[in-house]
């Protein structure tokens, strides 16, 4: 893919360039060139100046072993190639692969921790090799290099011949290594579009795969050491656990006197004495009876499913790391990297040594991470919150004193209803313009006729009035959205 993208850009640039300096058509082609050596890998015809570069097979033979870092239009790659195997680094895509040719085993490399993790399947380095040779051989496919000016110079402390175009409009530069015949640098383009591919470092002598050969190699997992699921659950009688799954946060507290669960920024409290669920408002430190259907067993089952997921996911081909610490807990760490021709799958698990619970699970970008893990649960603070009446309504609040005498509205869809210190608020959606008129007539018929105020526009309708009980109603309707809002509140007499 990298080569295709670069080739597309180069083709565009070449089409813009002139053909000045193309291969000379002389009698030498009929009767043969008379060559003399210009460099160990380059010959030049003394009659016509035609340059004979080292062939592709010769260049590949000269570079059978190398350690090269190469920059392909701004992105740097490193490839080590020798008889002991390969090493490839692509920091942009976070790919670091090592192949031990002696053992016929591939590894994912952690440079920071100096560890190598055996992968399932072997890396195929053929595409990386060809990406490197695409640059090293590029001059052989150039139609214009024969007519360029030349000069001897150095690049990366190596003797090279630089081929360049004397032009202020277009830049065309090649730097050909004298020893190997490889192209170490080429730049094509102008101020608007330019492609630069260059070797940033190169070694072809004493190439080896140290230090990767000596990196710590992770050991196979011993599944018999895992704490079984029923024992993990038994170890979690009381607990305070905070859990993040992807970007969603959850909290679970199990105590002797009840349970607390929080998800989607809404907390629920179970009082085991009253055997009732409450909805929690931490801002006002209040609790109200919940009308939602909540099953404690289902909540715990979902939690335990996450905490024991390693028991079904970790297999014999995982590797165990040295024991480490995570959120103040001693954990066993397990890893596996699976390589196929299409994907690289990375899996990581941290398992608590004491309880056997999985505290961290990562499968590529999918994550389930425990951020707090305590084996003591306390919900006393929430139990002591002040109990308030349920101020939320799921349908027309027919028993509320503010709507006495008003029959339930059957138009549209009930949206929300709540009673706050500001009064009673009710919302409907899918309301049509004729519905607004019928609802307003119903409100007026119920006695809301004192001190009326009304506005009617194409996209906004408004009515306000009070009744003889000093209850004020405000009706707001937006035809474009179909939303109708009712506000009831007491007014000073």
Q: What's the SSE blueprint?
A:
Blueprint lengths: L1 H15 L11 H4 L3 E5 L2 E4 L5 E3 L2 H7 L3 E7 L2 E8 L2 E6 L4 E6 L4 E6 L4 E6 L5 H11 L12 E7 L2 E7 L6 E7 L5 E7 L4 E10 L12 E2 L1 E2 L8 H6 L4 E7 L2 E8 L2 E6 L2 E6 L4 E6 L4 E4 L6 H12 L2 H4 L5 E2 L3 E3 L2 E11 L4 E9 L5 E6 L2 E9 L5 H4 L2 E2 L4 E2 L19 E8 L2 E7 L3 H13 L4 E8 L2 E7 L4 E8 L4 E8 L3
Parallel strand pairs: 9-15, 9-25, 22-29
Antiparallel strand pairs: 1-2, 2-3, 4-5, 4-14, 5-6, 6-7, 7-8, 8-9, 10-11, 11-12, 12-13, 13-14, 16-23, 17-18, 17-28, 18-19, 19-20, 20-21, 21-22, 23-25, 24-25, 25-26, 26-27, 27-28, 30-31, 31-32, 32-36, 33-34, 34-35, 35-36
Describe the structure.
- The chain is α+β, with helices and mostly antiparallel strands and 493 residues long.
- It is 15% helix and 45% strand.
- It has nine helices and 36 strands.
- It has a 26-stranded mixed β-sheet that branches. A seven-stranded antiparallel β-sheet has the order 30-31-32-36-35-34-33, with helices on one face.
- A hairpin with a 2-residue loop joins strand 10 (149-155) and strand 11 (158-164).
- The chain is elongated and about 115 Å long.
- The N and C termini lie far apart (78 Å).
- Mean pLDDT is 90; it is low at 13-25.
Return residue spans where pLDDT drops below 50 for at least 5 consecutive residues.
13-25
Gross morphology is elongated
Which percent band covers the strand fraction?
35-45%
So how many helices?
A: 9
Q: Indicate the percent of residues in helices.
A: 10-25%
The whole-number mean of residue pLDDT values reads 90
Distance between the termini: 78 Å
Global structural class: alpha+beta
Sheet having the most strands: 26 strands, mixed
How many beta-strand segments? 36
Estimated radius of gyration: 38 Å
């Amino acid at each position: 893919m990298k080569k295709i993208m670069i080739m597309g850009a180069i083709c565009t640039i070449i089409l813009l360039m002139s053909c000045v300096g193309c291969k000379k058509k002389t009698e030498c082609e009929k009767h043969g060139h008379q060559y003399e050596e210009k460099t160990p890998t380059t010959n030049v015809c003394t009659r016509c100046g035609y340059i004979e570069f080292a062939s592709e097979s010769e260049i590949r033979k000269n570079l059978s072993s190398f350690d090269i870092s190469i920059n392909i239009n701004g992105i740097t790659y490193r490839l080590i190639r020798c008889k002991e195997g390969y090493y490839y680094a692509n920091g942009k895509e976070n790919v670091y692969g090592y192949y031990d040719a002696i053992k016929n085993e591939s590894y994912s490399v952690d440079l920071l921790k100096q560890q190598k993790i055996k992968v399932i399947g072997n890396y195929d380095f053929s595409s990386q090799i060809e990406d490197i040779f695409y640059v090293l051989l590029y001059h052989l496919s150039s139609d214009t290099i024969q007519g360029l000016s030349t000069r001897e110079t150095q690049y990366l402390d190596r003797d090279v011949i630089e081929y360049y175009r004397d032009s202020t409009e277009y830049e065309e530069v090649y730097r050909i290594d004298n020893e190997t015949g490889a192209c170490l640098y080429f730049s094509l383009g102008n101020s608007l579009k330019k492609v630069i591919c260059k070797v940033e470092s190169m070694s072809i002598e004493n190439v080896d795969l140290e230090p990767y050969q000596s990196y710590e190699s992770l050991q196979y997992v011993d599944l018999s050491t895992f704490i079984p699921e029923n024992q993990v659950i038994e170890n979690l009688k009381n607990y305070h656990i905070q859990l993040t799954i992807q970007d969603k946060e959850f909290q679970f507290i199990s105590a002797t006197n009840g349970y607390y669960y929080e998800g989607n920024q809404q907390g629920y409290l179970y009082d085991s004495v009253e055997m009732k669920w409450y909805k929690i408002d931490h801002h006002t430190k209040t609790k109200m009876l919940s009308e939602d259907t909540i099953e404690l067993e289902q909540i715990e089952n979902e939690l335990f499913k996450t905490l024991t997921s390693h028991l079904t996911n970790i297999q014999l081909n995982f590797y165990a790391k040295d024991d480490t610490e995570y959120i103040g807990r001693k954990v066993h760490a397990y890893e596996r990297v699976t390589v196929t021709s299409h994907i690289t799958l990375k899996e990581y698990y941290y398992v608590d040594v004491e309880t056997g619970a999985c505290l961290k699970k990562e499968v590529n970008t999918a994550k389930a991470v425990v951020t707090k893990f305590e084996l003591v649960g306390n919900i006393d603070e929430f139990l002591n919150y002040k109990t308030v009446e349920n101020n939320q309504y799921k349908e027309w609040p027919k028993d509320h004193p503010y709507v006495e005498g008003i029959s339930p509205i059957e138009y549209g869809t009930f949206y929300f209803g709540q009673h706050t210190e500001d009064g009673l608020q009710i919302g409907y959606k899918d309301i049509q313009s004729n519905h607004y008129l019928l609802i307003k007539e119903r409100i007026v018929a119920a006695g809301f006729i004192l001190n009326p105020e009304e506005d009617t526009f194409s996209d906004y309708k408004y009515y306000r009035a009070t009744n003889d009980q000093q209850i004020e109603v405000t009706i707001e309707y937006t035809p474009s959205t179909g939303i109708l809002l009712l506000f009831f509140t007491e007014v000073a007499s």
